[in-house]
Design brief:
Oligomer: single chain
CATH class of the largest domain: Alpha Beta
CATH architecture of the largest domain: Alpha-Beta Complex
Radius of gyration: 19 Å
Distance between the termini: 43 Å
Order of helices and strands: EHEHEHEHEHEHEEEEEHHHEEEH
Structural class: alpha/beta
Bound molecules: ligand NAX
CATH superfamily of the largest domain: Lactate dehydrogenase/glycoside hydrolase, family 4, C-terminal
Amino acid sequence: MKTPVKVTITGAAGHIGYALAFRVASGAMFGPDQPVILRLLEIPQAMSSVHGVGMELEDCAFPLLYDVVLTDDSAIGFRETDYAILIGAKPRSKGMERKDLIEENAKIFSAQGRAINNYASDQVRVLVVGNPANTNALIAASNAPDLDRKQFTAMTRLDHNRSLGRLANKTNTLVADITRMTIWGNHSMTQYPDIGNCLVKGTPAFELVSRDWAIDHFIPRIQRRGAEIIEARGLSSAASAADAVVDHVRDWVLGTPSGDWVSMAVASDGSYGIEEGVMFSFPVTCENRDYEIVQGLELDEFSQSRLMASDRELRKERSVIEELLPKT
Ligand code: NAX
């Protein structure tokens, strides 16, 4: 058996954390021969609830689960961790402006960035899920000066998977028949789900669906899918979000299939004219816990304008928390 990997999940008593912990413990994330140690990090008010999660994990008797640590202390939660999955975030309360939401979360994620810098493995890989995910990832990475920016990512995989599901449904194919889906930009209403490079059983998607369908139906549906789920369930996406976390980390670690890519929000290196440093969702290929932004894709005027709109929004979000970013 391999040495166990340590996985920290913040907000583990919440909806997504609860759906995720069991899948990680079952081996869905790292494979059937990789033991795991879970560190479930919560706020003091949720410790009773997270103890219940710990009890249920014990009751599952997962052979791959070597240990579970329940804590509200980030020094313990992130100690030597290999993977930090940051889900816990301050939700938007009634009357709260988006600016206030960004500022409140910036405090949480700057503290967690510092804790990861100080306590985690120097090879840690970080995935930010809590919203506003891209900007939270930016502030966490900025507060971890000893780590590489490439160790920090934010999640747009749920949007990516939603897009695969929708296109498969429309073309009456299987999601496994579709490659090269891309989500560009922010995990927000400005995200750009792009099927311009998609192949469906090897055929360009735009030979099977019209551009009008993409613009008038597909893009807005993906952008509003979260609200659609809330309307139907009365609760926000949880199982599908946890599933997207599993997919994101699994592909980052084990690699993307040849000829395909996935969407991850990562620090821009200036590719496609996006402001350097902002956490922007790009098509990426992964290998050995590393990623590369796919280069050289052709973007028409429509696509360019969508990317720029999301870039503008991310710069604006960054300007809200500029003062909280450590000076370099
Ligand atoms: P819940 O409110 O059910 O759970 C959040 C949990 O985080 C709670 O148990 C809370 O006690 C804990 N928490 C809060 N602050 C914490 C801190 N400083 N340290 C540790 N734990 C803390 O929310 P849930 O439905 O699980 O959603 C969690 C976050 O994911 C939200 O910000 C949500 O907006 C975001 N999402 C992001 C998605 C993405 O694709 N990037 C999609 C799903 C989801 O909307």
